[in-house]
Amino acid sequence: MWKGHHGVMRLMKCMMETSETQLGDSRLSPKLGYLIVNHLCPSLFSLIGDGLKPFQKDVIIGQRRLSPWNLVEASAKSGPESFHILFYNVSRFQQLRDPQRRFNAFIFGLLNTKQLDLWISHLLQIYGTFQG
C-alpha cells in the first residue's frame, strides 16, 4: 500500500471532526495543520515527483533537473490566473528557498482558496510532458 496512506487517512478524519470555519486556520486547528505539513504535503510531493523525467531541456542552461516545484511553476504559467498569482506570491518569499517548503506553501494556498482539486485536475492535463 502507498506509504502516505495512513497519514492521509488521519488527515481526512481530522478534517471531518473540525468545523469548516476552523479548517483554514492552523492556529484554530493545529492538529490539522500538523497533518497537512507532515503527511499531505510530503505525500503529494512524492506522488507528483514519482515518474518525472530526471531532466528537462532548457534553452539557456541545456538541461535542468525536474522537481515537483517545476510542475507547480508550469501549471501556474498554463493555468488560471489564480494559480499564477499564488505561484508568484510563494516564489517571492526569501524564507522559502527549499523547493519542498515552496511546494508546501503552494498547497496551503490552494487549500485556503479551495482550489486544490482544480489544480490537481489541471496538473493531470499537463503532466504527460514531464513524465519519464
UniProtKB/TrEMBL annotation:
GO CC, one annotated term: cytoplasmic vesicle
InterPro entries named among the record's database cross-references: Run_dom, Run_dom_sf, RUSC1_2
Domain RUN: 31-132
Protein name from the UniProt record: RUN domain-containing protein
Native organism: Aquarana catesbeiana
